[in-house]
Design brief:
One of its GO terms (biological process) is tRNA processing. It catalyses: L-threonine + hydrogencarbonate + ATP = L-threonylcarbamoyladenylate + diphosphate + H2O. It is found in: Cytoplasm. The protein contains 12 helices and 18 strands. With about 400 residues, it is of the alpha/beta class. The protein folds into 2 domains: about 270 residues, DHBP synthase (Alpha-Beta Complex); about 120 residues, Rossmann fold (3-Layer(aba) Sandwich), CATH 3.40.50. β2 and β3 form a beta hairpin. α2 packs across α6. The longest helix is centred in the C-terminal third of the chain and has 16 residues. The radius of gyration is 21 Å and the shape is globular. The mean pLDDT is about 95. Bound molecules: threonylcarbamoyladenylate and magnesium ion (MG).
Length: about 400
C-alpha cells in the first residue's frame, strides 16, 4: 500500500464511483480500503502479486480475485476475503501450456490446441507446487486454465507467476462481470481492482477432469458441452474420450463459527470433506434477495405465496414472462435476450442478477424457467444447459407456479 499511494487516492476512488454510479452500492458503515489499478499500470499489478497482495483482474468469463499461486499466505487471504470454505479448490491461471505446474498427460497439447486460451479448465494432478494442498482443497489435483483475455494474459506475462483465482465475489454471491461488481463486494478490504471492461462471456469457465477414457464435466460453464463433444469428436488424438456430466447439487452447511476457525490458519485444515467434485454447492450465484424460478407447469403445487409484483424484479427470456404474468412493473423488468439468443442471455445473466438486487424496493427476483425452453426458437441453444444450471443455483432450486394472478410454491 505504502508503495503505490496513488491506487488508494480519494480522487481515484471517487472517479471510479462516479464512472459506475448506477452499479455501485455503498454501505455507510463500511470504509473503503481497496485500490484501483488503471490499465496502463499492469506492471504495478504484477508487483503487487509478487508482494503477496490480492489483485482482481478481468477474464473473458468473469473477473477473478488473484494471488500468487506459489504463496500459501496470499492464497489463504483469497479464502478469507471471499469468506469461502477451504474445501472449495481454486483454479490456477497460466499463460504457457508448457508450464502448467501439474503432471502433463500426452493428450494435453491436443486440448490446449482446441480450447486454450479460453473458458476451459482442466483438472490434473499437481506435483510441482508446494501450495497444492490448499489450492486443491486436499484433492491433490488442480484446475488449470489459460484465459482468453488481453489484460489477464498481459498480467500473467508481466508477473511471470501462476495466478490462483476464484471468481471475484463473496462466497455464494453472483460472480462479477464488471469491475464495479468486484468493488461492491470487496471495497472494504485490501483488494486491488483492475478497472477494465465487462467480461465477454458472462459466466465462468467449464471445468473438466479426465478419468481414464472419460471427461467428467465438474462444472458447466461458458464452453458448452456440445462444443466440447463436437471438437473432440473431430480430433484424432481426442476422439476416444466420452463426456460425462452428472448434475450434482450439494447443500452448503452454513456455520459461521466453523468457517472462522477454518480460515484462521492452514493447520486447521480438516480434510474429512475432500470431495471428488468439490465446490458444486447448490446455493451459488445468489442475489442478496430471494429468487424464484417461475413455472407454468402444474406439478407438485404447494401453498399460495403472497408476492407483490411491485416488489418483484423480473428476469425474462424472449418475452415469455411478460406475455403471461399480468401487472408486472416495467421499471423492474429485463429480458436476458429478446431474440431468444442463449449466448446473449449467458452474457447478460449475472449482470442482470446484480442489477436486480440493486432495484429500489425489490424483495424478490422472478426468473424465467429455462427447463421449459422451446429449443426450436433458440439461437446458440448449446448454451442453455449452463444457463439452466446457474439459474437453478441462484434460486437455490426454488420454483413457483403462476396461474390467474396468483403464485404457489412448488415442492
Ligand atoms: O471462469 C472461471 O473459471 C473463473 C475465472 C476467474 O477464471 N474462476 C472461477 O473460479 O470461477 P471459482 O473458484 O469461483 O470456481 C472454481 C470451481 C470450484 O468451485 C470447483 O467447483 C471447480 O471449479 N474446481 C476448481 N478446481 C478444482 C479441482 N481441483 N477439483 C475439482 N473441482 C475444481
Ligand atoms: Mg466462483
Amino acid at each position: 500500500m505504502e508503495n503505490f499511494p496513488q491506487l488508494y487516492s480519494k480522487e481515484r476512488i471517487q472517479q471510479f464511483i462516479t464512472k459506475y454510479k448506477d452499479l455501485i452500492q455503498l454501505d455507510p458503515l463500511k470504509e473503503i480500503h481497496c485500490g484501483i489499478i488503471h490499465l496502463d499500470e499492469l506492471h504495478i499489478a504484477a508487483q503487487l502479486l509478487h508482494q503477496g497482495e490480492l489483485v482482481a483482474f478481468p477474464t473473458e468469463t468473469v473477473y477473478g480475485l488473484g494471488a500468487n499461486a506459489k504463496n500459501a499466505q496470499a492464497i489463504l487471504n483469497i479464502f478469507k476475503a471471499k469468506r469461502r470454505p477451504l474445501s472449495d479448490p481454486l483454479i490456477v491461471h497460466v499463460h504457457d501450456k508448457n508450464n502448467i505446474y501439474t503432471d502433463k498427460p500426452d493428450f494435453l497439447d491436443s486440448f490446449a490446441e482446441l480450447f486454450w486460451p479460453g473458458p476451459f479448465t482442466i483438472v490434473l494432478k499437481s506435483t510441482q507446487l508446494e501450495t497444492t494442498e490448499i489450492l486443491s482443497a486436499g484433492t491433490g489435483s488442480i484446475g488449470i486454465r489459460i484465459p482468453n483475455h488481453k489484460v489477464a494474459l498481459e498480467l500473467l506475462e508481466k508477473a511471470n507467476l501462476p495466478i490462483a483465482a476464484p471468481s471475484a465475489n463473496l462466497f455464494t454471491h453472483i460472480s462479477p462481470t464488471s469491475a464495479a461488481h468486484v468493488f461492491n463486494d470487496f471495497y472494504d478490504q485490501r483488494v486491488h481492482i483492475i478497472d477494465a471492461d465487462r467480461s465477454d462471456n458472462g459466466i465462468e469457465s467449464t471445468v473438466i477432469k479426465p478419468l481414464g477414457n472419460e471427461l467428467h464435466i465438474l462444472r458447466l460453464g461458458s464452453l458448452a458441452k456440445e462444443t466440447i463433444m463436437q471438437k473432440i469428436g473431430q480430433s484424432v488424438q481426442l476422439k476416444h474420450f466420452a463426456i460425462k456430466y452428472e448434475n450434482k447439487y450439494m447443500q452448503i452447511e452454513e456455520n459461521e463459527e466453523e468457517l472462522e476457525k477454518e480460515l484462521e490458519n492452514l493447520q486447521n485444515l480438516d480434510r474429512k470433506n475432500s470431495m471428488e467434485a468439490p465446490g458444486q454447492f447448490l446455493k451459488h450465484y445468489s442475489a442478496r434477495i430471494n429468487s424464484f424460478i417461475v413455472t407454468f407447469q402444474q406439478i407438485n403445487i404447494g401453498q399460495e405465496i403472497d408476492l407483490d409484483l411491485k416488489e418483484s424484479v423480473i428476469i425474462d427470456f424472449g418475452q415469455e414472462l411478460r406475455n403471461r404474468i399480468v401487472n408486472i412493473d416495467e421499471t423492474k423488468y429485463k429480458s436476458l435476450s429478446i431474440n431468444y439468443d442463449a449466448k446473449e442471455a449467458m452474457f447478460n445473466l449475472y449482470d442482470s442478477l446484480r442489477w436486480a438486487e440493486l432495484q429500489q424496493g425489490a424483495k424478490q427476483i422472478l426468473l424465467y424457467d429455462f427447463d421449459t425452453v422451446i429449443n426450436q426458437k433458440v439461437q446458440h441453444d448449446e448454451n442453455i444447459l449452463s444457463i439452466q444450471d446457474k439459474i437453478f443455483r441462484s434460486a437455490s432450486g426454488q420454483k413457483i407456479y403462476y396461474k390467474d394472478n396468483k403464485f404457489y410454491l412448488c415442492q
